[in-house]
Amino acid sequence: MEKPLIDVPTGPAPEDLVIEDLVLGEGEEAQPNDQVEVHYVGVDFETGQEFDSSWDRGQSINFPLNGLIQGWQEGIPGMKVGGRRKLVIPPEKAYGPANGAHPLGGRTLIFVIDLLKVGS
C-alpha cells in the first residue's frame, strides 16, 4: 500500500469516536491487548495539517495497543491484517483538553491506519 491521502472534512468535528473501514483486511484480527504493527498518518481535523506519519519516517511502528491513546485502543480492535481504517478521535479520546501538557490537546484528530501485523 501507499501512504494515504486524507480529505479534510467539512462541518463540525464529531463528539465521539468515528471508525470507518477504508479497506477490509483478510488476515488475523486485532484484539484489545495485542501487540500491533502499523503504518499511519495523523492529521488535525480542523486545519487538515499532517502532524505525524510513519510513512514519512520510512518505517512502520510496533507497540502494545493498551499503551496508546484511547481512540486507538477502541478503534483498532476488530481490524484485520491488511486492512486500512480511518479513525476520527475527539480530544477526550486523544490527548485531552487544550490546557493539558500535550501540544495536540484539545484537538480532534484523524488517523488513517494500516494494520500490518498482529502479535510480537
Automatic annotation (TrEMBL):
SUPFAM superfamilies the UniProt entry points to: FKBP-like
Pfam families cross-referenced by the UniProt entry: FKBP_C
Reaction catalysed by this enzyme: [protein]-peptidylproline (omega=180) = [protein]-peptidylproline (omega=0)
GO molecular function, one term: peptidyl-prolyl cis-trans isomerase activity
Key words of the record: Isomerase, Rotamase
Family annotation (InterPro entries): PPIase_dom_sf, PPIase_FKBP_dom
Family: Belongs to the FKBP-type PPIase family.
Name of protein: Peptidyl-prolyl cis-trans isomerase
Organism: Corynebacterium poyangense
